[in-house]
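From the pipeline queue, job 12 of 40. The input is one protein chain; the requested action is below.

Action: predict structure.
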Amino acid sequence: MPVPKKPPPVVAFTRRDLEEAEEARLPVYASRSSRARRQRPLATEGKSFDYRTAYQRDRDRVVHSKAFRRLKHKTQVFIPFEGDHYRTRLTHTLEATQLARTIARALGLNEDLTEACALGHDVGHTPFGHSGEKALNRILSGEDAAVPVPKAVAQAVGAFKHNYQSVRVVDLLEKRYEHPGLNLTNDTREGILKHTAWRRDFPFPNVDPEGLNLSSGCHLEGQAVGWADEIAQQAHDLEDGMRLVEEGKVVALPISRLVVESLGEAWTAARDADARRSLLVRGIIHLLVTDVITASRAAIERWLTARRVTTPDEFYAQRRKLPGSLVAPSSGGERLFRELKEFIYQHVIHSHAVAQHDGRAQHIVTTLFGAFHRNPRLLPDDVLLRYRDLSGVPFLRDVPLKRVEAEVSASYRDRPLFLRCIADHIAGMTDSYAVSVYDALYSPYPRSRPGTPG
């Protein structure tokens, strides 16, 4: 009688096992979770079994944050409740994450770090997409006459940009632990900040520069996120916006012509407009991602060879000297991408439908900021209590009514910290919450009473 075969052993990998597997598997230029550092030590919270690497823990902390959940109700380009299939900031984040992981996997980078950076890259985004971001930046910079902020105060407040706000969210504003923020690794924080344009001297407060390496380009995983974000945004803005543009104009783009040529009979056989649109967008994404992978592989190899890097230790010794453009398309691929981006701005972003949405969005954000600035009592208690804790002023609802205006003038209206608290509050709103607050303040017959922004 044959002896039954034993089943293969069942294992439960510990963090150390996973780190050792990384060391054995990853090329020398990939980030190692065993070398990751945080702003503060992790609390054990009674847990005796550690089965996640540092970057996996970052990913989980981002996904479980309130700021991440709110992305579901924040606009990408089109206002989400005008159609069930337009993208929101959350769907964009998931799509960008998928592309970033594809690039990272092909290049041998650390997928967990890539995923953590990609999932967190937009958690500081405003309601109403970039129009909300522009409105807040204009106000805080003292450039909006509707909210008079003296220049000296504006200089002390600092400006607004969503990638800096994302770091502010994960460092300070999320409240899940005994300490402020999520206590992410410095590598994830850096990737979140540097996924889009940034400056070492950008006027933004309370972003702890420790670990952000503001004098150098981002690690390779963060660079992969940056281009994945760009490709996802432009390709999907095109897909959502093709209902506004004649198909012939889209197909005439140089990048579209390349895709149509490569599709051959598959394109000519597609009779349905939706099918052609999907074919074209998939082809554009594939072309750009492939170009990024191919060009980046060669660029990374040249950099390693020029600096004689052959081990992880040698790479980490020079990691802070990485140029910010190693993971990037070729010159030809970037030209095709820029042409696509310019086309989308001209025909989609500047279309009548999007202009209407942007005008409405900027009006709502500016009006809400002005209302809170003039009368802080319109702010919810949690914002007033946070300002009290940060500034040491009395809780405004405890101030006798006859002294409120004097207290507001002395301790609120032109205090940079108070203006930043308003910006944090509005930036954390979803589109629907911002509309409901505006409605509650200014409609004679409010449709609903606003809840909380999260």
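Job complete. Residues 9 and 332 are 50 Å apart (CA to CA).
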